[in-house]
Amino acid sequence: MGSSSGHSNTPQGLEKPVTLRTIRRMVESGDPFAALTCYDATSARWFQQAGVPVLLVGDTAAEMILGLPGTIHAPLDFMLTITAAVRRGAPNCLLMGDMPFLSYQVDEAEAIRNAGRFMVEGQADCVKLEVDGTFSGLVSQMNRAGIPVIAHIGSRPQQVKHDGGYRSFGRTAAEASRLIEDARRLEEAGATMLLIEAVPSEVTQAIVDCTSIPVIGCGAGTACHGQVVVTQDLMGLTPWQPAFASPLVDMGAEFVALGQKWIDRVKTGNLGEHPYKMAPGETLGDPGEVARRAPQQSH
Q: In the annotation, is 28 catalytic?
Protein backbone atom coordinates (compact mmCIF):
# COMPACT_ATOMS: atom_id res chain seq x y z
CA MET A 1 0.00 0.00 0.00
CA GLY A 2 1.51 3.31 -1.04
CA SER A 3 1.25 6.72 0.55
CA SER A 4 2.72 10.08 -0.31
CA SER A 5 5.23 11.08 2.37
CA GLY A 6 7.11 13.79 0.52
CA HIS A 7 7.10 17.16 2.22
CA SER A 8 9.69 19.24 0.39
CA ASN A 9 7.19 22.09 0.01
CA THR A 10 6.16 22.10 3.66
CA PRO A 11 7.29 25.35 5.33
CA GLN A 12 9.44 24.88 8.41
CA GLY A 13 8.19 26.76 11.46
CA LEU A 14 11.54 26.36 13.20
CA GLU A 15 14.23 27.51 10.80
CA LYS A 16 17.09 26.79 13.20
CA PRO A 17 17.59 23.91 15.64
CA VAL A 18 16.32 24.52 19.16
CA THR A 19 19.05 23.62 21.65
CA LEU A 20 19.36 23.59 25.41
CA ARG A 21 21.07 26.96 25.08
CA THR A 22 18.00 28.21 23.18
CA ILE A 23 15.78 27.12 26.07
CA ARG A 24 18.01 28.80 28.64
CA ARG A 25 17.84 32.03 26.66
CA MET A 26 14.04 31.81 26.54
CA VAL A 27 13.97 31.36 30.31
CA GLU A 28 16.30 34.33 30.82
CA SER A 29 14.10 36.53 28.63
CA GLY A 30 10.90 35.41 30.38
CA ASP A 31 9.53 33.72 27.26
CA PRO A 32 7.51 30.61 28.28
CA PHE A 33 8.08 27.62 25.99
CA ALA A 34 5.69 24.89 24.91
CA ALA A 35 6.39 21.17 24.79
CA LEU A 36 4.24 18.31 23.53
CA THR A 37 4.49 14.55 23.51
CA CYS A 38 5.12 13.05 20.09
CA TYR A 39 5.55 9.49 18.91
CA ASP A 40 5.84 9.51 15.10
CA ALA A 41 7.56 11.34 12.26
CA THR A 42 4.39 12.68 10.64
CA SER A 43 3.11 14.41 13.78
CA ALA A 44 6.63 15.66 14.49
CA ARG A 45 6.83 17.31 11.07
CA TRP A 46 3.62 19.26 11.66
CA PHE A 47 4.61 20.26 15.18
CA GLN A 48 7.88 21.63 13.86
CA GLN A 49 5.93 23.57 11.25
CA ALA A 50 3.74 24.95 14.06
CA GLY A 51 6.87 26.12 15.86
CA VAL A 52 6.62 23.85 18.92
CA PRO A 53 10.18 24.07 20.27
CA VAL A 54 10.31 20.94 22.45
CA LEU A 55 9.02 17.44 21.74
CA LEU A 56 8.97 14.68 24.35
CA VAL A 57 8.90 11.10 23.14
CA GLY A 58 7.19 9.99 26.32
CA ASP A 59 6.72 6.50 27.69
CA THR A 60 3.02 7.39 27.49
CA ALA A 61 3.47 5.85 24.04
CA ALA A 62 2.81 2.54 25.82
CA GLU A 63 -0.75 3.75 26.41
CA MET A 64 -1.33 6.06 23.43
CA ILE A 65 0.29 3.92 20.72
CA LEU A 66 0.44 0.35 22.00
CA GLY A 67 -2.81 0.33 23.98
CA LEU A 68 -1.12 -0.99 27.13
CA PRO A 69 -2.46 -0.24 30.63
CA GLY A 70 0.39 1.94 31.87
CA THR A 71 3.69 3.61 31.07
CA ILE A 72 5.76 0.88 32.74
CA HIS A 73 5.01 -1.36 29.74
CA ALA A 74 6.97 0.77 27.24
CA PRO A 75 9.75 -1.41 25.73
CA LEU A 76 13.21 0.17 25.50
CA ASP A 77 13.85 -0.74 21.86
CA PHE A 78 10.41 0.55 20.90
CA MET A 79 11.14 3.87 22.61
CA LEU A 80 14.45 4.14 20.76
CA THR A 81 12.77 3.43 17.42
CA ILE A 82 10.06 6.07 17.82
CA THR A 83 12.51 8.62 19.22
CA ALA A 84 14.55 8.32 16.03
CA ALA A 85 11.32 8.60 14.01
CA VAL A 86 10.39 11.86 15.72
CA ARG A 87 13.88 13.21 15.07
CA ARG A 88 13.53 12.46 11.36
CA GLY A 89 10.22 14.30 11.31
CA ALA A 90 11.39 17.28 13.34
CA PRO A 91 15.13 17.81 12.94
CA ASN A 92 14.97 21.32 14.45
CA CYS A 93 12.94 20.62 17.60
CA LEU A 94 14.66 19.98 20.92
CA LEU A 95 14.06 16.26 21.38
CA MET A 96 13.65 14.66 24.80
CA GLY A 97 13.87 10.87 25.03
CA ASP A 98 11.95 9.31 27.91
CA MET A 99 13.85 6.43 29.50
CA PRO A 100 11.35 3.66 30.25
CA PHE A 101 10.83 1.59 33.38
CA LEU A 102 13.89 -0.45 34.46
CA SER A 103 16.12 1.03 31.75
CA TYR A 104 18.02 3.09 34.35
CA GLN A 105 17.02 1.89 37.84
CA VAL A 106 18.90 -1.42 37.98
CA ASP A 107 22.54 -0.51 37.43
CA GLU A 108 24.33 2.79 36.79
CA ALA A 109 26.54 1.42 34.02
CA GLU A 110 23.53 -0.07 32.24
CA ALA A 111 21.64 3.20 32.72
CA ILE A 112 24.42 5.22 31.10
CA ARG A 113 24.63 2.78 28.18
CA ASN A 114 20.87 2.96 27.65
CA ALA A 115 20.92 6.74 27.88
CA GLY A 116 23.73 6.75 25.34
CA ARG A 117 21.54 4.71 23.00
CA PHE A 118 18.89 7.43 23.19
CA MET A 119 21.51 9.99 22.22
CA VAL A 120 23.08 7.93 19.41
CA GLU A 121 20.35 5.65 18.04
CA GLY A 122 17.42 7.88 18.93
CA GLN A 123 19.29 11.13 18.14
CA ALA A 124 17.75 12.71 21.25
CA ASP A 125 19.13 15.95 22.65
CA CYS A 126 18.55 14.86 26.24
CA VAL A 127 16.96 12.09 28.28
CA LYS A 128 14.25 12.27 30.91
CA LEU A 129 14.37 10.19 34.09
CA GLU A 130 11.68 9.85 36.76
CA VAL A 131 13.77 10.36 39.87
CA ASP A 132 14.09 11.80 43.35
CA GLY A 133 17.12 12.99 45.26
CA THR A 134 18.41 9.46 45.79
CA PHE A 135 19.22 9.32 42.06
CA SER A 136 21.63 12.25 42.29
CA GLY A 137 24.61 9.91 41.89
CA LEU A 138 23.24 8.53 38.62
CA VAL A 139 22.44 12.01 37.33
CA SER A 140 25.99 13.06 38.17
CA GLN A 141 27.44 10.08 36.30
CA MET A 142 25.32 10.80 33.23
CA ASN A 143 26.31 14.45 33.38
CA ARG A 144 29.96 13.37 33.53
CA ALA A 145 29.38 11.18 30.46
CA GLY A 146 28.01 14.16 28.54
CA ILE A 147 24.34 13.13 28.67
CA PRO A 148 21.94 16.00 29.46
CA VAL A 149 19.34 14.83 31.99
CA ILE A 150 15.82 16.12 32.54
CA ALA A 151 14.95 15.18 36.12
CA HIS A 152 11.23 14.34 36.42
CA ILE A 153 10.00 14.85 39.98
CA GLY A 154 6.64 15.03 41.75
CA SER A 155 4.13 12.51 40.47
CA ARG A 156 6.07 9.78 38.70
CA PRO A 157 3.91 7.42 36.61
CA GLN A 158 6.55 4.67 36.71
CA GLN A 159 5.96 4.55 40.49
CA VAL A 160 2.20 4.13 40.16
CA LYS A 161 2.22 0.54 41.49
CA HIS A 162 4.29 1.59 44.48
CA ASP A 163 2.02 4.54 45.22
CA GLY A 164 -1.21 2.61 44.74
CA GLY A 165 -2.35 4.75 41.82
CA TYR A 166 -1.79 8.16 40.31
CA ARG A 167 -1.81 11.06 42.76
CA SER A 168 -0.49 14.57 43.18
CA PHE A 169 2.57 15.27 45.33
CA GLY A 170 3.58 18.09 47.63
CA ARG A 171 0.19 18.57 49.25
CA THR A 172 1.65 18.45 52.76
CA ALA A 173 4.42 20.66 54.10
CA ALA A 174 6.66 17.63 54.69
CA GLU A 175 6.17 16.29 51.17
CA ALA A 176 6.69 19.74 49.67
CA SER A 177 9.96 20.11 51.59
CA ARG A 178 11.16 16.77 50.21
CA LEU A 179 10.36 17.84 46.66
CA ILE A 180 12.23 21.11 47.09
CA GLU A 181 15.22 19.24 48.49
CA ASP A 182 15.04 16.73 45.61
CA ALA A 183 15.12 19.59 43.12
CA ARG A 184 18.17 21.13 44.79
CA ARG A 185 20.06 17.84 44.93
CA LEU A 186 19.32 17.01 41.31
CA GLU A 187 20.43 20.43 40.10
CA GLU A 188 23.65 20.10 42.11
CA ALA A 189 24.17 16.67 40.50
CA GLY A 190 24.07 18.30 37.08
CA ALA A 191 20.47 17.98 35.90
CA THR A 192 19.92 20.17 32.85
CA MET A 193 16.22 20.78 33.49
CA LEU A 194 13.49 19.77 35.90
CA LEU A 195 10.07 18.43 34.93
CA ILE A 196 7.50 18.72 37.72
CA GLU A 197 4.24 16.78 37.51
CA ALA A 198 1.01 17.15 39.52
CA VAL A 199 2.29 19.51 42.20
CA PRO A 200 0.53 22.49 43.88
CA SER A 201 1.38 25.88 42.37
CA GLU A 202 3.01 27.28 45.50
CA VAL A 203 5.35 24.28 45.75
CA THR A 204 6.31 24.68 42.11
CA GLN A 205 6.99 28.38 42.69
CA ALA A 206 9.26 27.51 45.60
CA ILE A 207 11.21 25.08 43.41
CA VAL A 208 11.55 27.65 40.63
CA ASP A 209 12.77 30.20 43.17
CA CYS A 210 15.42 27.95 44.71
CA THR A 211 16.86 26.50 41.48
CA SER A 212 18.57 28.08 38.48
CA ILE A 213 17.74 25.61 35.72
CA PRO A 214 14.68 25.60 33.42
CA VAL A 215 11.56 24.01 34.91
CA ILE A 216 8.89 22.32 32.80
CA GLY A 217 5.48 21.76 34.32
CA CYS A 218 2.90 19.07 33.72
CA GLY A 219 -0.03 20.04 35.87
CA ALA A 220 2.24 22.08 38.13
CA GLY A 221 0.93 25.60 37.61
CA THR A 222 2.04 28.65 35.69
CA ALA A 223 5.26 29.35 37.60
CA CYS A 224 7.11 26.91 35.32
CA HIS A 225 9.22 28.15 32.44
CA GLY A 226 7.67 25.60 30.07
CA GLN A 227 4.60 23.40 29.89
CA VAL A 228 4.16 19.86 28.53
CA VAL A 229 1.05 17.72 28.11
CA VAL A 230 0.09 14.53 26.30
CA THR A 231 -0.89 15.59 22.79
CA GLN A 232 -3.77 13.12 22.58
CA ASP A 233 -5.39 14.87 25.53
CA LEU A 234 -5.37 18.17 23.65
CA MET A 235 -6.77 16.41 20.59
CA GLY A 236 -9.74 14.98 22.48
CA LEU A 237 -8.66 11.42 21.75
CA THR A 238 -8.45 10.11 25.30
CA PRO A 239 -11.46 9.05 27.38
CA TRP A 240 -10.48 11.43 30.20
CA GLN A 241 -8.31 14.52 30.23
CA PRO A 242 -6.80 16.27 33.25
CA ALA A 243 -7.97 19.84 33.83
CA PHE A 244 -4.58 21.24 32.79
CA ALA A 245 -4.84 19.51 29.38
CA SER A 246 -8.42 20.06 28.29
CA PRO A 247 -9.05 19.37 24.57
CA LEU A 248 -8.37 22.16 22.10
CA VAL A 249 -10.01 20.26 19.22
CA ASP A 250 -12.42 17.32 18.98
CA MET A 251 -10.37 14.98 16.83
CA GLY A 252 -12.26 11.95 18.14
CA ALA A 253 -15.42 13.16 16.41
CA GLU A 254 -13.38 14.02 13.31
CA PHE A 255 -11.97 10.47 13.15
CA VAL A 256 -15.49 9.03 13.41
CA ALA A 257 -16.74 11.36 10.65
CA LEU A 258 -13.77 10.48 8.44
CA GLY A 259 -14.39 6.75 8.86
CA GLN A 260 -18.07 7.12 8.05
CA LYS A 261 -17.37 9.22 4.94
CA TRP A 262 -14.89 6.65 3.66
CA ILE A 263 -17.42 3.86 4.20
CA ASP A 264 -19.92 5.83 2.09
CA ARG A 265 -17.40 6.47 -0.68
CA VAL A 266 -16.45 2.81 -0.89
CA LYS A 267 -20.10 1.75 -1.06
CA THR A 268 -20.93 4.26 -3.79
CA GLY A 269 -17.70 3.82 -5.76
CA ASN A 270 -16.96 7.53 -5.39
CA LEU A 271 -13.19 7.10 -5.24
CA GLY A 272 -12.18 9.95 -7.52
CA GLU A 273 -10.39 9.73 -10.85
CA HIS A 274 -8.34 6.55 -11.22
CA PRO A 275 -4.75 7.70 -11.81
CA TYR A 276 -3.24 4.59 -13.38
CA LYS A 277 -3.48 4.09 -17.18
CA MET A 278 -1.99 1.58 -19.59
CA ALA A 279 0.96 2.86 -21.58
CA PRO A 280 0.16 4.60 -24.90
CA GLY A 281 -0.49 2.06 -27.67
CA GLU A 282 -1.01 -0.79 -25.23
CA THR A 283 -4.38 -2.59 -25.17
CA LEU A 284 -5.66 -5.80 -23.70
CA GLY A 285 -7.70 -6.69 -26.77
CA ASP A 286 -10.54 -9.18 -26.52
CA PRO A 287 -11.10 -10.09 -22.84
CA GLY A 288 -11.79 -13.71 -23.72
CA GLU A 289 -8.53 -14.02 -25.63
CA VAL A 290 -6.65 -12.42 -22.78
CA ALA A 291 -8.09 -15.01 -20.38
CA ARG A 292 -7.02 -17.86 -22.68
CA ARG A 293 -3.47 -16.49 -22.91
CA ALA A 294 -3.09 -16.02 -19.15
CA PRO A 295 -0.83 -18.58 -17.43
CA GLN A 296 -2.80 -21.27 -15.71
CA GLN A 297 -2.20 -21.55 -11.98
CA SER A 298 -1.59 -25.01 -10.64
CA HIS A 299 -3.62 -26.08 -7.64
A: no
